[in-house]
Amino acid sequence: MNSEIKNFFYPLSICVVGASTKEKSIGYELLHTISNYGYKGMILPVNPKAESVLGYKCYKSIEEINDRIDLAIIVVPKQFAEDAVDELLRKNVKSILLITAGFKEIGKEGEEVEKRIVEKIKSAGARLVGPNCMGVINALPDVKLNATFVAEKPETGNTGFFSQSGALGAAVLNSLRETDVKFAHFISAGNKADINENDLLRFWQNDDNIKTLTFYLESFVNGEEFLKPFIKGEITKPVIILKAGKTSGGMKAASSHTGALSSKDKVVDASLKQFGIVRVNNIDEMFNTAKGLENFPIPKGRRVAVVTNAGGPAILTVDSLEKEHLELAELSEETKTKLREVVHPEGSVNNPVDLLPGANADTYKKVNELVTADENVDAVISIFVEPVMVQPFEVVESVYDVKTEKPIMQVYLPLPEFWDTYRRDSKKHLPVFRKPEDPAEVLSNMLYYSESKELMDKHRKEY
Amino acid sequence: MNSEIKNFFYPLSICVVGASTKEKSIGYELLHTISNYGYKGMILPVNPKAESVLGYKCYKSIEEINDRIDLAIIVVPKQFAEDAVDELLRKNVKSILLITAGFKEIGKEGEEVEKRIVEKIKSAGARLVGPNCMGVINALPDVKLNATFVAEKPETGNTGFFSQSGALGAAVLNSLRETDVKFAHFISAGNKADINENDLLRFWQNDDNIKTLTFYLESFVNGEEFLKPFIKGEITKPVIILKAGKTSGGMKAASSHTGALSSKDKVVDASLKQFGIVRVNNIDEMFNTAKGLENFPIPKGRRVAVVTNAGGPAILTVDSLEKEHLELAELSEETKTKLREVVHPEGSVNNPVDLLPGANADTYKKVNELVTADENVDAVISIFVEPVMVQPFEVVESVYDVKTEKPIMQVYLPLPEFWDTYRRDSKKHLPVFRKPEDPAEVLSNMLYYSESKELMDKHRKEY
C-alpha cells in the first residue's frame, strides 16, 4: 500500500500546526476533537506562544520536534501555510493535510500559492490532502482518529467515504446519530490539489478494512484515470458515486465552488454505467446502498416477498418495487399452506403477507423463515409499524436471527425511543431502514452492481 | 357545518365502549391516550365488570349513561360490535367511531355484518367512522382529543390529515417528534364503510381551523363525487393527495387491504391534475408541501436565489431546482454590489450566494434582505451547515425575521441537538427543511397549486 496515503489514515504520530488555546478557533476545536475521539497515536501540537494545549505539550516550532511525524495537519491562517509546508518538508514529513482555505477557490492569487505548494510537495516525494478541506477520519478501533472539526464520534463501519465538499461531509457527520451511517475512513478532499478520487479509489481497493467505496464528487480531476483501474479489472469492491452538478445550473455552481471544472453529465453517466459503478441521486441513497452491500447478501433475482403488520406501508413498498423494476414474488402453494398455520386467520398469506398488528417476534421470525425458504423468493422486505402491544426490539432481533442466504431487509416505523434501544442493545446491529421505499432502491442498486460485474467478468474472459 | 361529522372532532362528551383495566389492551391504551393528551370534554367509559378505569367512573352498560354522548368510540371485540351499535342508536348517539377490525377486510362474513351495521346507522341518521381504523385526533387547544392508540402528543397545526391506512397514520404519529409535522385534525378512516374522503373534503373546506387538506388514499370510494366540489369551485383550500397503489402490484395489494377497489392510476392522475390537486409521491413530500403552503407566501414566479455557507449542499439544491423546473435567479448588479459589502471577500455574490462557514446570524439576515429585495428573485432557499464557530439557533431566527412577501425557506444541516432547541425556543417556529432537495419540491408544488387555481378561476369566469 502507498505509505504516504496510508499515513493519512493510519499515522502513529500527528503534528497539529496551528494548535490553539482559544476555544471555538479551528486550531482548538480540531485538537479537541482528536483528543475526544481517543486517538491512539502521539499528538504533537505546534504553537509559538503556548506551553500546552488541552494538556498536550506544545512545540514552539516544527523544527523543535524530534519525534517522527507521520501526518502533519495545518490549520494556520493562509498567509502562514506555505511556510508551514516548507518547514514540514525540511523535517522530511511525507503526508500533509492542509485544512486552511483561501487558495484556488478564491481566484488567481490563491491559485498561484496553491500551485507553488503542490510543486514543492511533489518534488519532495510527499503527498497533500486539501487545501480548503475539513480533514480526515479513521474510525477503526486501533486508530480512532477524527481530524476534523465536527465533534461527533463516528461508529466503526466498513465504508470509505470521500467528499469533495467539506460541508456535505460535515452535514453527514452532523447527522450520524440519526442516520446510523458508519464508515471506516472519511476524507474531505477540498480543492484536490494533489490527492483526489483517483488515489483513494486505488488505496481503498487495497485496504482490507474497506468493503465499499463512496464518493461525493462535484467534478472528476481526470475521468479517464478514474476509469482505468475498472477497465483493467483491478476494482473488485462496490463503488457508489453521488455526482452533484447534474444539471447545467448545478454544474455552473460546482465550478465556482472548490474551483472545479465539472464534466458533462451524460458522458459521466454513460461511463459510470459501463463499469458497474452505482450512481445515486442523493446522500440517503448513497449510504443506504452502502449499508445494503456491506450487510446483506446480494439477491439472486428480482422476486421480492413483503412481510408486514400493516397494509398502508406495504402498499408503498409494493409501489416502490415496480418503480425499481423488481417483482412481487408469487409464493408457492406449499409456503402459503405453512403460513396459514402461523399467520392470524384474518391476515393474508398472499404476498404481501399481512400478519396484522398483533404479530409478535415469534410470528415474524417463523414467517420470515417460511418465505425465505420459498424458491420463488429472492429477497424479503419485512415491515414493522409499532403497535401498542408488541415490543419492537424483540421483533427486529428475531428477524435478523433468521438463518438464510437471501437478504431480509427490515423497515421500521417505531416510536423514536426505539432507535436508542436498538443502537445500544442489538447484537448484530444490522441496518434498519426508515422508509417503506428504501429497501427496493437498495436491492435494485445491489442487483445492478452484481449484474454489471458478472457481465464485465464475462467480457473479460471472452477477450 | 355537518354536526354528525363535527362531533368526531369537537365532541363535548365521549363514550368509550370497551374501556378496559388491562394494560396494553386497546380498551386501556385508548383511554390512557385520551386522558394523557388532556381531552377537555367529559369521558364516559363503558365496561360491565369494572367500577372505574384510569380514575374515570365506569358504566356497566351504554343504557346506564344519562349524559348526552356526542361521540361513541367502540373498541369491543368484533362479535360484540353490532350489539354496541344497536345500543348506541337506541341512545340516539349520532356519531360512532368503530375501531374494531374483522369486517369487510376479512371476507364475506365480515362484509355482511359491516353492511348491516351501516344500514342501521344510516336509517338512524347517524354517521360512522371505520370499522378497522385507528381513531381520530383533534389537536386544537380547546379540544385536545387523541382518540387513537398512539400515545404521542401532537402539536397543533392547521392541516387536516385523512389516512385510509391506520398503520400509515400510526407511522406518521410515531415519528412526529422527528418530522415536526403538525396538524389540527387526523382521521383514520379504515374500511370507509360510511364516512370517507368525500365527507372530509367538504367538512374541512368549511372548518376555519383547517388551512390545508392532506389525504393518504388507497382507493377513491367515488372519484366523481370527490371531484364535484372542485368542479363547482367550492374547494378553495389546497388539497394534497398521496395515492398509493400507483403500480399494478401496489393496486392489487391495496385491494386486499381495507377491501378497497383501486382506481386506474392514469385516470386518477389526469383527473387530479385538472383541478389543481397536488399529487405527491411520498409521505415526506406530502407534509413538506403542507408546511410550505401553510407557512410561506406562494412565490410569484420560478426564479430562486440560493444563499449558503457551504458549496456542496448548495449544488445539490441547484440540481433540484432544475429537476423541479425552477430557475436559478440572475441577481441584479445593484444587489451584487450591495452583497459585496456584506459577504466575505472570498465568498461569492453570484447566485448561489456563498457566505463561507464563518457567516453569522447578522450576515445571513442582511444577505436574505438584499436578495429578497431584488426584483429578479421570486423565492429564496437559505442553507446552513453547522460549523463550529456559529450558533445555529441565532441564524435560523434571524433569517425568519426578515420582512418580505417572498418565501424564504431554510435548509438546516445541524448537529441533532439543534432540533430540540428550535422546537423549544423558536418564536415563530416556522418549518425548517432537512434536505437540500426539499424546498425545490415544495416551491414547485406551491407554484403548481397557484397556477392551476388561477387557470380554473379564469375558465370559470369565461363560461
Task: Walk me through what this model shows.
Chain A is an alpha/beta fold. Helix content of chain A is 40%, strand content 18%. Chain A folds into two domains: 3-292, Succinyl-CoA synthetase domains (Rossmann fold); 297-447, Rossmann fold, CATH 3.40.50.261. The two termini of chain A are 30 Å apart.
Q: What is the compact description of this entry?
A:
The structure is a homodimer of 463-residue chains. Chain A is of the alpha/beta class and 463 residues long. In chain A, 40% of the residues lie in helices and 18% in strands.
Secondary-structure blueprint:
2 copies of one chain form a homodimer.
Chain A: H1 3-9, E1 13-17, H2 26-37, E2 42-46, E3 52-53, E4 56-57, E5 71-74, H3 81-90, E6 95-98, H4 108-123, E7 127-129, E8 135-138, E9 145-147, E10 156-163, H5 166-174, H6 176-179, E11 183-188, H7 197-205, E12 212-217, H8 223-231, E13 239-243, H9 248-256, H10 265-274, E14 278-279, H11 283-295, E15 303-308, H12 311-323, E16 327-328, H13 333-342, E17 353-354, H14 361-373, E18 379-385, H15 392-400, E19 408-413, H16 417-425, H17 438-462
Parallel strand pairs in A: 1-2, 1-5, 5-6, 6-7, 10-11, 10-12, 12-13, 13-14, 15-16, 15-17, 15-18, 18-19
Antiparallel strand pairs in A: 3-4, 8-9, 8-11
Helix pairs in contact in A: 3-4, 11-17, 13-14, 14-15
Structural descriptors:
463 residues; homodimer; 40% helix; 18% strand; alpha/beta; Rossmann fold; seven-stranded mixed sheet
Helix content of chain A: 40-55%
Oligomer: homodimer
- Structure class of chain A: alpha/beta
CATH superfamily of the largest domain in chain A: Succinyl-CoA synthetase domains
Number of helices of chain A: 17
Which two chains form the greatest contact, residue counts included?
A-B, 76 and 76 residues
How many domains of chain A? The number is: 2
Shape of chain A: elongated
How far is the first residue's CA from the last residue's CA of chain A?
A: 30 Å
**Sheet with the most strands: spatial strand order of chain A:** 9-8-11-10-12-13-14
What can be said about the biggest beta sheet of chain A? 7 strands, mixed
Radius of gyration of chain A: 25 Å
CATH class of the largest domain in chain A: Alpha Beta
Mean pLDDT of chain A: 92
Low-confidence stretches of chain A: none
